Amino acid sequence: MILVLVEHEGGATTELTSQALAFGRSLAGDEPVDCVACIAPSQEIATDELGPGTLHLAEHDAYASLAPDAVAATVAGVVERTGARAVVAPGSDTGNDVLARVAARLDQPLASNCVAATAGEPARVTRTRWGGSLLEEAELDGAPLLLTVQPHAVAADVAGAPVAGVERFTPVLADADLAVRVADRVEAAGSGIALADANVVVSGGRGVGSTEGFAIIEELAGLLGAAVGCSRAVTMAGWRPHTDQVGQTGTKIAPELYIPCGISGATQHMAGCKGAKRILAIVDDAEAPILAGADYAVIGDLHEIVPAISAELRKARGS
Amino acid sequence: MSTVPRDARAVVIGCGIVGNSLAYHLAREGWRDLVLIDKGPLPNPGGSTGHASNFIFLVDHSKEMTQLTLESTRQYEELGVFTECGGIEVARTEERLEELRRRMASAKAWGVEPVSLVTPAEIKELVPYIDESILLGGFHTPGVGVVDSLRAGTLMREWAVESGALQVSANTEVTGIDVEGGRVRRVHTSRGTVEAETVVIACGVWSPVLARMAGAFVPLTPAVHQMIDVGPVPRFEQSSKAIEYPIVRDMDVFMYERQDGTSLEIGSYAHRTILHDPEEIPSIEEAASSPTELPFTQADFDPQMQDALDLMPEIVGDESVGVKYAINGLISLTPDGMPLLGETPEVKGLWSAAAVWVKEGPGVGKSLAEWMVHGESHIDLHSSDISRFHAHQQTRAHVRARTTEAFPKTYGIIHPAEQWASDRNLRLSPMHARHEALGAVFYEAAGWERPQWFESNAPLVEQYGVEAREAEWDARWWSPIVNAEHLAMRDNAGLFDLSAFAIFDVQGAGALDALQRSVLAQVDVAVGRVIYTPVLSPGGGFRSDLTIMRLAEDRFRVVTGGAHGMADRKLFSDNLPADGSASLVDVTTAWTTIGLWGPRARDILGSVTSDDVSHDGFPFAACRTLELGSQLVLASRISYVGDLGWELYVPIEQGARLWDVLWEAGQPHGLTACGIGVYGTTGRLEKCYRAYGAELESEYTVVEAGMARPTVKEQDFVGKDAHLRHRDEEPAALLCTLTIDDHTSASGVKRYPLGREPITLPDGSPLTDAKGRRSYATSAGAAPSVGKHVLMAYLPPEQAVVGERLAVEYMCERYPVTVEVVGATPLFDPENARIRAADPVPA
Amino acid sequence: MKILVCGKRVPMTGGRIVLTEDEQAIETRHLGFTISPHEECGVEEAVRLVEQHGGESVVLTLGPPEAEEQLRDQMALGVDRAIHLVTGGEEWDPQATAAAIVDAIRADEAASGPFDLVVFGNESADSGGYQVGIRVAHALGRPAVTGLKGVAVEDGRVRCEQEVAGGRDVYVVPLPAVVTVKEGLNLPRYPSVPGRMRAKQKPVAATTPDRPQARLRLVRLAVPAGQGKQAEVLGRGPEAAPAVVEVLRGIGVVA
Q1: I need a labelling partner for B11 at 20 to 30 A (CA). Which of A49, B336, B528, C177 fits?
Q2: What is the pairing mode between strands A86-90 and A2-5?
Q3: Does the interface ipTM go beyond 0.95?
């Protein structure tokens, strides 16, 4: 049996969970695929697409405050009980966190951010490195195999069926499993469009030149209803806050359209914008690496081009 | 993807400061259909221009480099990208202070003003964040500044494009250069092929790779120069300009510090030599920053931090000032430290414009454009001529050995006669073992080991009462034995190893015409005659001087100095007729040359040959083959030391035998082995013989050098029109020989100038001729037979008067000199009685 | 306070990653090295916490002899001393890495008292395993909070802020604890020249741990396909603006 860890928001499974399910099913072959989910007593979860295996549904107060050790203990318990041959989790922050805790408890290896896996002795996995800029083929010894799935690397499986059954249980948790839990929530003060969720993102790089230089980037973003991003060079220079950074160590974005301006395309940056459906690069260097990942390009000085596009947009709007 | 044009008048490869500047100046000179390409993007394609520190110090001991720098500065100012901030070279040691005094002399000799020596307190006033307590003084040049070299390149490139002369293709990689029949034909690129018969490699550290595509050599190596940038500096935060304080060169620790906006840039040449292979430079995509900005190696910089901290504790010691940027920047180094300019000797039409730094860039662009369009440049570039290298000097091993040795001396104190330590003993004359046995002290010329003097002659010093030099600097790389050998030669005879001569046979039906076209003197002399002749540039300046023996109607032997030999070979090769009726064969390593001169020379030679060597039988300026036992020796009765005697040529494998035969025969006559110290300095100087590269440069005319002959040959030759014109003009300067009247310095130590010092009025005012050229000592050295230290110098006509009292400035002190000779009349033996000596030899 | 920061020597890559012939590693001939960006923020945080609360900061790495450069770099920023677990340059899997670090922590704590806080980067820049810090915490029986962009120590506890959609989740756990941090936690300082000079004198305790059998073994690296697509150039300079707006319309982001 292959066990898939389910993440949910407001009762619905997340997109990354669907991807993990698809990954788990392809790894399982003819084997059954079960799911494990942890909910607070007050929560419910949609089960119509988690089947056809069994859903192991843990209920505990602790889950309301995340409590990653509690989740890990629960998953480890299910593994022990069911003899699952592999556990697959979404490659989200919490997915990676929880499965690492499971791995530590079971003293088993964990392959994070996989894009492919083949069962066997040893199992073979393909996982990402450098935020997706490189692929690693690796051998993995593990019983069970512990894998997280690189976001947006596999298509979400929509062929799911309702679960065969739901095994509800209340796990027994040690005090230590409850030590780490959310004590408070601070709402974000920012009013802008969240980078990670934006439909369009306009970013500036080193080529923008200064804090003030971002005025033209913000103007264009305003006209497009877009979020403003930037490269690591910009945050390191102190021109923009780190929250604006698109990149391997910043925010990973997945907009319909990404417009990097004056960004050459270091691997660190490309790792953060791989999820963009389309990329339109404005860059002064016709050989910049970013063009290898872009769909459209305008070559030249962004200080001239960006205002011209803004002007053109205003004109179009006016007519 | 755009493609390169199908045809071009010239293709310039490389969009750094050099390529941009060259394209601009070629356009200004009227060339059209120019193509400029670079594999990188614009405006910064990723070469050394992009990370240059961009500051310009004006004074160099080399006239050529100083002139290129001054011309570059003029252009940067014209382009509006020059910011004057001043610069101070500071001294922590007495030895350096002396070197700065020498800098003062060079500044005056090359006309760089104002400059001054400043005290530690004055330095502190100019650079308030310096710790002046560790300094002894400084050399201040207010005209030092920083430039925006990328901007300058862009402006020049854009001008050429707008003028319609230039097409630019960036992001275009050269994949091949075709050569057919020894001439460049086309350039293959990632954007198509362009046909061109002139191609210039201006690719900085990549140049060797490009040259190899065409089978040519650009002997340079990429090397690391470390640079860090610290900031923000509180003192600089209020600066309104990018640079307000003078740049400081901390010469004794091989570092510099300069303001760059709110940062302080610290550069170092103090670390170990770190060389790279041109083939191994990363691509633009592979490189983390730029291909020529390599990862900083902290350990190499560690020792320098203390030095920077000592000098500028206020800034460098500030805990809030961080190291924001640090690179191992790649720069180009060459075996002799000079640029690589001109047409490659291997491939016609393929030019090099490499190993040029930002401070020379636009000057090189202009000069090279002049050279390409007119055949010569206003600034004499012979020290930078890429055709100067002998084959071994083009090898990777030689380049690496010499640059490894030279890098730590980037800010070093280099004596004018300083010898290389690395890669020696490559070219040994057949007499080398004999020389070693005689205690020869070897100096290198063109890779040859030449005895400069022989320690075994030390007893002659006492015999002739030669005085030692008191100042260590004056005596460094010198020995009183040189003067003693000289006097022994004048008394009896001297034997010289001249193996370093470069020798070419020009032969064939067209040989005479080819040589007539190449040189000033009449070449159509009788078989068995030797001529001495200057070789002129198109503008009538000096390009070389050498001797030619007519060995047969259609065969001539050209003999020239080793150092300039390869450039001369190219020069003569270029003048060969296209129809193949004449050819040039380099026989340098087939023949060795021994010089035998002095009043007893005829007696010695006569004792080992039955052939007639009497004055009538073997007159001056004759050459012919003698039998010396079983050796056939080509003898040529000329002399560069001004005495009776011969140059004797034998196949190189017989050189040792000839030496032995002459040596043995000479013993009863007092024959002395003499070094090049006599041949190249004392012997020639008291005879007022000129030397190429010292007195003879393309900036001076035959008339000015006092070498015009009564008539000019009918035949056409390079530079003839100009030469005829010069003969009709009043010369702006005249080459004079001066002697020093009093050597005593203020401290009572006798000082001996070594050459290149300014000649001034007695009050120290510089002398400038009507063409704007300063008077300076073109050569300096002892004239032992007249008991004086002599200088040669071009003087304006008002001062070129025998008996005129002037001064030479040496280490910031003036010494009185007197003009002894105006023109070419020898100081010693003005009648040339010795050299033309009939039998018997005058006593 | 006594704080340990763990960092990993990684190359500073450019626009294109080139692999070695045997596909076992990145070609680093032309590259400089650093520690992962998250870890740089961890070091900065440790230095600030010690500046604020007093105590000692220590930096640890498991890596080849050359990784001493990175240790000196961190000490130049104010870290007091370093622990170097010297390897032969081969890849260590996360389990082996964690085990070696646990041994080193236990040894150091036995000699000079417990670490109040052990700081890791959320994941390394190169292999991105997301687990070493958690494994170390588990082995030491200490709480671990991951992905932090805010760390504050007060009254024997550490307040941890994790960035999530719409705000920040706050965890408060008792010391000693393990945290993994993300870039954005702070803006790391640059080293001063005096800092660099002091770093040369600071102690580095080097040991050579045995490398256990890896259970996650690198077989080969590959550059993902799909790199190198050719962008459609809409134009050069501001004249391209109408073409851009046309494309924006086509995509549907402009009406």
Answers
A1: B336
A2: parallel
A3: no
